[in-house]
């Protein structure tokens, strides 16, 4: 589709936004807006087969996510947003690359509440921070299954904590959706460009 290739080309060198200059962000924002104007899925929350699944983040303006890269002696690896509409759940999983045996993981899980055909309210409930090996991390799908079957990981595995969902909430709007690309906007003005895994 016209515009999609331009957006993908624009975000490719940005390292999810870590390497983007103000002019890069302006160009990416304009390319995203042009594509949003041609959204082939006007009611994305009804298109469960398209929306459901694991999405890899290609680009964001969210400083909360990009600041994970500031962990000493580590670098931000792939970031995933995993949507499970049947359970009204969403999971954000960021891999952190470090020295051997010290690669980590930052994960938050939340409930979704649809408020329109494009927007969901998000209430974050649980966070997990730890090393991938003790957590048994292999993939986002496998880790989500572990999260759902483990009420609380032990301190030997990582830090597993509850979030105050009243204070840790926001909204996410799906502004573009096709078979393999999703654009979203968040309540803090953040832009997200994701590709289906």
Automatic annotation (TrEMBL):
Residues 4-195 form the Plastid lipid-associated protein/fibrillin conserved domain. Pfam families: PAP_fibrillin. InterPro entries: PAP (IPR039633), PAP/fibrillin_dom (IPR006843). PANTHER family: PLASTID-LIPID-ASSOCIATED PROTEIN 4, CHLOROPLASTIC-RELATED. This is Fibrillin. It comes from Shackletoniella antarctica. The lineage of its organism: Bacteria, Bacillati, Cyanobacteriota, Cyanophyceae, Oculatellales.
């Amino acid at each position: 589709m016209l515009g999609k290739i331009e957006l993908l080309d624009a975000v490719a060198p940005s390292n999810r936004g870590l390497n983007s200059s103000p002019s890069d962000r302006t160009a990416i924002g304009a390319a995203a807006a042009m594509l949003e104007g041609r959204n082939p899925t006007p009611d994305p929350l009804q298109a469960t087969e398209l929306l459901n699944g694991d999405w890899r983040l290609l680009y964001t303006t969210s400083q909360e996510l990009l600041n994970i890269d500031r962990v000493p002696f580590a670098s931000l690896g792939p970031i995933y947003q995993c949507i499970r509409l049947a359970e009204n759940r969403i999971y954000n999983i960021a891999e952190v690359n470090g020295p051997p045996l010290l690669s980590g993981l930052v994960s938050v899980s939340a409930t979704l509440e649809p408020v329109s055909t494009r927007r969901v309210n998000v209430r974050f409930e649980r966070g997990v921070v730890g090393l991938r090996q003790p957590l048994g991390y292999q993939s986002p799908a496998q880790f989500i299954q572990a999260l759902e079957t483990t009420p609380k990981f032990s301190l030997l595995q990582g830090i597993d904590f509850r979030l105050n969902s009243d204070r840790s909430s926001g909204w996410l709007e799906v502004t573009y959706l096709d078979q393999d690309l999703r654009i979203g906007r968040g309540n803090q003005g953040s832009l997200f460009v994701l590709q289906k895994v």
